[in-house]
Amino acid sequence: MAELPGPFLCGALLGLLCLSGLAVEVKVPTEPLSTPLGKTAELTCTYSTSVGDSFALEWSFVQPGKPISESHPILYFTNGQLYPTGSKSKRVSLLQNPPTVGVATLKLTDVHPSDTGTYLCQVNNPPDFYTNGLGLINLTVLVPPSNPLCSQSGQTSVGGSTALRCSSSEGAPKPVYNWVRLGSFPTPSPGSMVQDEVSGQLILTNLSLTSSGTYRCVATNQMGSASCELTLSVTEPSEGRVAGALIGVLLVVLLLSVAAFCLIRFHKERGKKPKETYGGSDLREDAMAPGISEHTSMRADSSKGFLERPSSASTVTTTKSKLPMIV
């Protein structure tokens, strides 16, 4: 008997399994799903298998940009019981309960912006053969743009360039931005205006006095729009030079005032220094003792080597003469 090729055997075996109803097949929409904020989302999931006592259904969720391996369960059905779990447990349910007739559609009420992501519908029914037991659905919660913030940077004098920016912190899908000029003034020529609808930036070059005015940015998506306004004032270059010169003069005056104050303070501090005087306890080499005149001072005789002490009026004493007694 000739041996059959391997691929032929595998194909035949798969066909027998499908005919016998032992294959698990999960089907979900191929297009992404979008639901407005606060509404109810229905995530359609159907399957085909021979439901038995081991049948199990699991719905799980993974945030945008993360791998499927980081998904976490939000609902179980096993042993005939339904088990919502996680932060969405109070808002999730099944369209048909029990989901034993081929319909495993999930209902999610009052959708939040944080509900945007990928949902996994997985059917497990051993010992059925698994051809495709997992389906993925991408859900986007539609959110209108929040009020954008307008800002400006750059040189606003004649001949200069400036950038006007606009951004909304919320909005799904991401809003597009459009700048318009208010009033009866003409819109800047296309050659001097470059607008980016994705980033919300408007660049104005070769400014003139007629570029002054109020500009409005409108953020729009399929859920609505919001706007902010900004006033641009273009000045003559000479005004900038005058302002710079005035600031320079003020700085010079300030520096001169500080220098004058320091000089006056220095002279005052110098005038307060005490003069060199002799105190009452200081003795000078040529000072006279009290009560002694120059004539009664002691003189040194350099030739004789001794001191000569003249008589002084203060030291002269008188003696009484003794008279003989006559008897």
Question: Could you walk me through the main structural features you see in this protein, from its secondary elements to its overall organization?
Answer:
- The protein has helices at 6-19, 237-271, and strands spanning 23-27, 33-36, 41-43, 46-48, 56-62, 72-78, 81-84, 92-94, 106-108, 117-124, 129-132, 134-142, 149-154, 162-167, 176-181, 193-196, 201-204, 213-221, 224-232, 299-300, 307-308.
- The chain has 327 residues and is an alpha+beta fold.
- The longest helix is centred in the last third of the chain and has 35 residues, at 237-271.
- It has a six-stranded mixed sheet with strand order 2-12-10-5-6-7, with no helix packed on it. A four-stranded antiparallel sheet has the order 13-14-17-16, with no helix packed on it.
- Among the domains are: 23-140, Immunoglobulins (Immunoglobulin-like), CATH 2.60.40.10; 147-230, Sandwich (Immunoglobulin-like).
- It is found in: Membrane.
- Its main location: membrane.
- Keywords: Disulfide bond, Glycoprotein, Immunoglobulin domain, Membrane, Repeat, Signal, Transmembrane, Transmembrane helix.
- Residues 38-125, 144-233 form the Ig-like domain.
- The chain crosses the membrane at residues 242-264.
Largest sheet: 6 strands, mixed
CATH architecture of the domain at 23-140: Sandwich
Provide a count of the helices.
2
Find the CATH superfamily of the domain at 23-140: Immunoglobulins
* Mean pLDDT metric: 78
**SSE string, helices as H and strands as E:** HEEEEEEEEEEEEEEEEEEEHEE
Secondary structure: helix percent: 10-25%
Radius of gyration (CA) equals 54 Å
Overall shape: it is elongated
